[in-house]
């Protein structure tokens, strides 16, 4: 989320939607906490900021009330011994981003980088939406500080613009600023400088005189030495030197997003004499070269080589305006290169050779000769490959950065590709802006076009005649869509196809073969993968010619636009199906090799390897799903482990669903385990699985009859989540460790699964031994994800016993492990499980913070069961605080997230019924409460999850007491222990137990309680349901 305090307080979700915060006091509290984002703010400071000198009668309770309201708005506020803290990174808050950008701009200004300074300072000032801390009227000192920083940043930005020669445009703005701040001498001096630089010397002197008079009248002081020095410069009015000659074209559009490149290229030109800008067509090499030349202090000359096909030296002569004399007529003609050497021998010149790639050998030879013979000459070249001359410095011109998906408009427009699109679109359709309605399409367009400036500009031009959404959709056929451009541009830059064809035609046949075959890769590839799949050509040659990029990670990447063109060429060559199959088989082998490794001590390295090739794995899976479903089935099986470990469960379930539907309701021969894992994974995370009912029958048969080790250990885990514990008496119920493979990971899973079964059936002692052994097994193996699961289940068991400190310690260790490996889904579950234990043991504030963070992560990860559990936990907290209407609302939100089948969802539904029964009971609706308890007890899940059943039985004990049956109440309390084991610290159980014991007396209570506790779980269920 993003937070704003430079104006009225605002909270924006990841999609840019405003989040309602609350009334004035809540907004003031949010503002005060955001001022110190991520740091603890003492309660005294918050009280002072909220109430000033008039605190309420009970200030502590008043502050806690405002904190609670802020939490209800979805803002995670932590209570710590020293005060309150928002778990927010400073970069999420506009005021802190402003200070960082303003400081960066100030440092760039001091270093002489006027363009970079102007860009950063403009971005910083754009964050202001109104007066700082507008919702915190008692934070005047902090607001004044921010306002002073804003004015200083504004003055810095004006200095940067003056340094860029923008004096004419600044005069009007400075006039308004001086009127608003007549005593700020820096603004006065800037106005004098702007007027003087624009040739308005008399007005500059008049502006200084006005400043002098105002300072004398208002403050009784003379102008500062700095302002007096500016005045002296105007009085001297020294003649300006004639500007260096230049053949550079006048810029018709703004130069966006390249301040860092410009700074680096200028530095390279200062340190050396030959700099070559390399990169793919349309990346903006020419524009960057022209801007670098425009900032060069000496003479410059631009030579456009694209239109010519021979004689580079003659083109340079023509650009310099050097014509050969025709007198005397009998003098022999001097070769162009010799004439250039003679003309440039002592000339201090920056020569810009634009588009050398089609004449690279000739351009290189001429450049080498000129640099050797002309010591004052510098050359700035643009080419899709280096000139390869000794002393050459190369600067790769990358595409413009693209905003990440889901970035809010205020953030998206700070990305150069989006800014470029917005500016060019506004030029053809006045009033166009990037806002909540347009930001998604603009982001998709810029990302699909790789941030290539030319492609983005061509797409923006289509806004004149096409709706934005249609442009985004039609980019699958980008070469047709972007087929019209600037009529005045060079032919190779008028359409996107022409840009790519220009590069393609420069490749030899073998390079073209490799380039088109590379189009089957998504997201890049290693040289080894390219060789295995493509089997032709040398990829390094394509990197030299900017058809692919070699990243710092050693992977080669092809821009999507070039990849789309290559895919067309692959189809024309009739190679698409063969290369797609080779690609899919290669990554199937990779996934199969990686799956056992991510269950080992080498887990992090192999997870990173799968991350790097994830787009390739997805591309292979999507192709195989349509073309060869059985190959897709073989591929999803090893990927399931990766999806679970990396918190991609929902994404994986949707992909598995597509594969399962293509395969049909019966497993293909030899792929039974893969089929079961695919279907179970699809059901475990898919919002609705009605089309898979026939497929599920196979999974349920497997869950009932499974006794042999499956090929993939994840089968046991995922099937268990879908089908739940095996029914008593089935082969699966009698299964021991022999039902699992003998590798350490699988045996640890066997221990953990059996321990869970014991815990669900109320055998906590047996469960503890097994879970402790599972923890030890995974520790010895060195695998982090399995260890985190074992720790979390062990923590759950300890929490039931009332060992809260030990339970939370284990949960914290498990959380650290899941965060280390990026298992977002498991982090979410661990948070709400830890919150459950905190809630049961009375730490409502700690539990609330965990639930709220779990909701935030679950929404981001798309895990409905986690959302349902966290909302249920918040409902329980609201119930315990007596806020029954809010509790019912939260229960409704929980139920909406678990409306489908599956064991986990059924468990949550039973828990919701019990909570609703407790609310009914507390509000006097005893009959309704009893109906809900009995409905929960009768749910099929209660026969396998005795914990859910025990909660319902506890509720029925309270109903029995209400009906005047204290002995039955004591008996039911004992029966609940028979089902679940003792759960220490439960406020509801303690309340009912105390009331029943007071009614019966100790002896009668103990006898009835013991009769219930002595029952077996099946008999306890029968007795409670009677």
TrEMBL record:
It holds the Pfam family BTAD. Belongs to the AfsR/DnrI/RedD regulatory family. GO terms for molecular function: DNA binding. Residues 1-88 form the OmpR/PhoB-type domain. It comes from the Bacteria. Keywords: DNA-binding. Gene3D superfamilies: Tetratricopeptide repeat domain, Winged helix-like DNA-binding domain superfamily/Winged helix DNA-binding domain. The keyword Magnesium does not apply. CDD domains: BTAD. This is OmpR/PhoB-type domain-containing protein. InterPro entries: BTAD, OmpR/PhoB-type_DNA-bd, P-loop_NTPase, Sig_transdc_resp-reg_C-effctor, TPR-like_helical_dom_sf, WH-like_DNA-bd_sf. GO terms for biological process: phosphorelay signal transduction system; regulation of DNA-templated transcription. Residues 1-88 bind DNA. The keyword DNA-binding applies.
